[in-house]
Amino acid sequence: MTLIRTLSSLFRFKHGTAQPEDIQWLSYHIPKTAGSSLRQMFYREFGRSSVFDVYRPDEARSLGQGNAIQVSARSRVVHGHFKPHPRHSELFPNANSMVWVRDPIQRIWSLVGHLLDLQWKHPHYETIHNLYISKGIENQSDIVERIIKEHSIPYMVTTYSRFFSEVGVQEFSFVGSMHNFATSIELLNKEFNLSLKPLHRNSRTKAGIPSTLSNLKYLMEDEYSLVDDYL
After folding, report:
1. Hey, is 1 helix, strand or coil?
2. How far apart are alpha carbons 155 and 38 in whole angstroms?
3. How many other β-carbons are positioned within 10 Å of the β-carbon of residue 14?
4. Cα-to-chain-centroid distance, residue 163
C-alpha cells in the first residue's frame, strides 16, 4: 500500500464514514467535461469536507462496478471518474445524479491536447507516443484525425457508448452542457435549489477545433446520437 493510500485510509478511519442516505449528489465526471471547475464549485457550495473525490483508480473501479466504497463522514457529494451503475440508486438512495457532456470530437481534441501538454506525466500519453509521435506524427490535429478514422484508441472514440452502457443518459437527474455552461448551471440551481456559481478552471474548454475535424462527425454517429439532445 502506498503512502498516499495509507494516509487516506487512516483519514477515513479517524473521521468515520458517511451514511448512504446522507449523500445528496453523485457527480459523474467524464474526462474533459469541466470536472475540475465543478469540483471547485462543489467545494464552495457544500464545503471542502462535504465533497468526496473518487479519483483513485481502485475506488473508481469498485464504485463503477456497483460496489460500496468507504465515503468519509460529512460527505454530501461524491464526485469523480467513476462509471454509472444501476446499483448506485440502491447504494445512495437519496442522491440525485449529475453528468456533463461535450461535443464528442471536441472532447477528443481537448483530451489529446491535454496529453500532449503533460506528456510522460500522464500514463495515457504512452499510447499516443507509441502510435503516432514515435512515427513522426506530432501535430494535434493529425493525431486526432487518425484516432477517429483509424479507431486506434477505442476508449477515446466510444467514450459515451461505454459510459452510458448500463445507465442511459436520460436516467440522470441532470445533464449539463459544456457548450452552455452558465445556462446549465442556472437551470441546475433553479431545479434543485442550489447556488452554484459558474467557474472555468481549464481554458481549453473554450477552444474550438479545426474544420477538418468537424467534418468527421459522420464517423462518430453513435456517439453523437447519445448526447446531441443535451449539447
Report:
1. coil
2. 23
3. 9
4. 10
208 has a pLDDT exceeding 90: no
**Residue that is written with C-alpha cell 467545494 in the block:** 43
> Quick check: 4 pLDDT over 60?
no
Task: Choose among 44, 36, 24: nearest CA to 197.
Answer: 44
Give mean pLDDT, residues 97-105: 98
Bin 30: left if φ > 0, else alpha if -120 < ψ < 50, else beta.
beta
Give the bridge partners for 98, in sequence order. 27, 174
Average pLDDT over residues 159-166: 97
Is residue 11's pLDDT more than 50?
A: no
Q: How far apart are CA 62 and CA 52, in angstroms?
A: 15
- Long-range pairs for 136-144 at CB < 8 Å and ≥24 separation? 140/109, 140/112, 140/113, 140/116, 141/210, 141/212, 141/213, 143/112, 143/116, 144/105, 144/108, 144/109, 144/112, 144/209, 144/213
Cell numbers for 25: 449528489
pLDDT higher than threshold 50 for residue 226: yes
C-alpha cell read off for 162: 461505454
Q: In the chain, which ranges are continuous DSSP H helix?
A: 3-15, 35-46, 57-64, 88-91, 104-118, 125-131, 140-150, 154-157, 159-163, 181-192, 211-214, 221-227
For the question of whether the overall pTM of this predicted structure is more than 0.85, the answer is yes
Q: For the chain, how many residues are written?
A: 231
Q: Among 164, 167, 184, which residue's Cα sits nearest to residue 230? A: 184
pLDDT tens sequence across 168-196: 999 999 999 999 999 999 999 999 999 99
